[in-house]
Write a sequence for this structure.
């Protein structure tokens, strides 16, 4: 059944990309789910373990700091950051996903909003001390991914940080089907967007099958 759900995701993504609307399928998928989280194949209904491990290792606290969660899905990562003291804004391109978050966490301190990474509110520019993105870049086609880099970077305030988590591969490896693992070359334009590399972790997550991950931390000088 889970394989069928993944096939549906890939089918929708392909259809909408062919129509010239490479991000339109997210709303369709969330709407089709009709509240069944099993249809959202990336939704663990818990904080991303790769984020959680980093937060624990770095002993991150967020009191007095603003955080932005990009492509927040069903909200678990945003809630974890709020639990750690951050003032959190979380957005997704899907209004249905945002409404779902609000139903799941009716008393949350997180501000959940429907927004497009590539057309985000101007008042978010350099407005956040910590920006978190997981698994969004890896589902964008290369042209949109190139536009997403400066879009992500502009959210980060001076001395603020951006953490990205994604699947990883070598340049000569076939990316296969969605989600598309990134290479180190996909990160070379972040310095031009005003961020310097703090740490680039390349490791295997022990899941159902070992999955290569990149966990990349940037900071604005």
């Amino acid at each position: 059944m889970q394989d069928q759900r993944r096939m549906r995701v890939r089918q929708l993504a392909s259809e909408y990309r062919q129509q010239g609307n490479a991000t339109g399928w997210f709303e369709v998928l969330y709407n089709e789910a009709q509240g069944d989280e099993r249809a959202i194949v990336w939704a663990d209904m818990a904080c991303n373990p790769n984020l959680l491990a980093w937060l624990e290792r770095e002993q991150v606290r967020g009191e007095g700091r603003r955080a932005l969660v990009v492509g927040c899905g069903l909200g678990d990562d945003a809630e974890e950051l709020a639990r750690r003291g951050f003032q959190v804004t979380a957005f997704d391109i899907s209004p249905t996903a945002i409404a779902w978050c609000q139903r799941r966490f009716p008393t949350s301190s997180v501000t959940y909003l429907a927004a497009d990474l590539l057309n985000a509110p101007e008042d978010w520019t350099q407005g956040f001390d910590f920006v978190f993105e997981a698994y969004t870049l890896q589902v964008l086609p290369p042209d949109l991914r190139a536009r997403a880099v400066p879009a992500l970077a502009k959210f980060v305030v001076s001395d603020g940080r951006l953490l990205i988590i994604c699947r990883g591969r070598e340049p000569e490896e076939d990316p296969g089907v969605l989600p598309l693992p990134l290479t180190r070359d996909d990160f070379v334009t972040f310095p031009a967007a005003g961020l310097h590399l703090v740490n680039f972790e390349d490791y295997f997550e022990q899941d159902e099958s070992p999955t290569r991950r990149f966990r990349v931390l940037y900071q604005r000088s």
DSSP finds six helices and seven strands in the chain. The chain has one domain: 44-220. The helical segments are 2-18, 25-33, 49-58, 76-83, 95-104, 142-153. The first strand starts at residue 66 and ends at 70.
